[in-house]
Design brief:
Blueprint: H1 9-31, E1 39-40, H2 45-50, H3 55-65, H4 73-93, E2 98-103, E3 106-111, E4 119-120, E5 125-126, E6 131-132, E7 136-146, E8 151-152, E9 155-156, E10 163-165, E11 169-171, E12 178-180, E13 182-190
Parallel strand pairs: 1-5
Antiparallel strand pairs: 2-3, 3-7, 4-6, 7-13, 8-9, 10-11, 12-13
Length: about 200
């Protein structure tokens, strides 16, 4: 979990650029239906410690999340997949122009954009129950706080939270990591000149 701590981000970027042709080829093959993959969670002592659990407790979390204690976990996953598919279809049928997310640590207006689609877990990440979409950043405005450290190039970001204004003009020198009732807390604010559809 901390394997890349202290590694120069420039080297990480260089590695990513070197791998890009192979990743593009793999993505093209996957999109053509000639390749697929599944990523499963395997518990280790280090991961358990990061979650403040014993290794046995951590594995129990994985077992519960993957339905491994059920008589037929595969049938259960197929049921979950069907349910996610139904939710995705219902979301895509709604005429949503924008979302306003409000809570203790968030006040965010998100514009979805004309051709954005909701998609769901495809079985590649196990366990995963995600349903997600890609917002249109040009119509997104607000702020959100996280209870985990912000990462940039797999490194915790330090310093003043970044601000984005007028498309790509950036201010600040990175995210913020300070103590606040939970082990890590970071806050980022985003502003755009277009505002949001309300």
């Amino acid at each position: 979990m901390h394997a890349l701590e202290g590694v120069d981000p420039a080297l990480i970027m260089r590695s990513g650029r070197a791998m890009k042709p192979a990743m593009d080829w793999r993505t093209e093959k996957e999109n053509a239906g000639r390749f697929t993959w599944t990523l499963g969670l395997y518990g280790t002592a280090a991961m358990a410690a990061e979650a403040a659990l014993t290794e046995e407790e951590y594995w129990q979390q994985i077992t519960d999340a993957c339905f491994l204690d059920e008589d037929d976990p595969i049938a259960r996953w197929r049921q979950v997949s069907e349910q996610i598919g139904e939710y995705v279809a219902r979301l895509n049928a709604l005429p949503i122009e924008a979302l306003h997310v409000v809570g203790t640590d968030v006040d965010l207006h998100v514009t979805l954009g004309e051709r954005r689609q909701w998609v769901g877990g495809s079985g590649r990440n196990i366990p995963s129950f995600e349903i997600f979409t890609s917002p249109d950043w040009r119509g997104t405005e607000g702020w959100i706080a996280f209870n985990q450290a912000a990462l940039s190039l797999r490194q915790p970001r330090q310093g003043r939270p970044p601000r984005v204004r007028r498309r790509t003009r950036c201010e600040g020198n990175g995210g913020s990591t300070t103590n606040r009732s939970s082990p890590r807390w970071s806050r980022a604010r985003t502003r755009t000149r277009w505002g949001s559809s309300r």
